[in-house]
Amino acid sequence: MKVGVISDTHGLLRAEALAALEGCERIIHAGDIGKPEILEQLASIAPLHVVRGNNDLGAPWADTLADQLHFDLNGWQSLLVHDIADVPATLDAGIKLVITGHSHQPRIEWRGERLYLNPGSAGRRRFKLPVTLALLEVLDGSIESRLVSLLE
Predict the structure, then answer these.
(1) Are the C-beta atoms of residues 16 and 151 closer than 8 Å to each other?
(2) What is the pLDDT at residue 146?
(3) How far apart are CA 133 and CA 122, in angstroms?
């Protein structure tokens, strides 16, 4: 299963991001979406898992979005939150994938048998941080992840 993971679009969904997400069977947005049209565009590609970010708070269109989601990705129990500070100190042993955003800093890190993934920011460049998203290949017994740079 090909899964696209995007975060911190802040109202900007780049053509490069849409191209990178083509063919995904699911898309995950880790918050700071910016406007509802971004979710509409992503939903036209694949089913979505979405949480709101701190910059989405107070926007009427984001009121129904969760702050935290638990879901299954092809057998991988997953937790999605915007800010890694909101990940519980003690996680259920069944959670094998933790996806966050917020920092704009891409990271793929295995901690034991649990994958922590931050796809970075796909919106406007912040400071000198890269503009990225992540792609996952989720199989029954394994998960492969890679970052995709959206700007040269």
Answers:
(1) yes
(2) 97
(3) 6
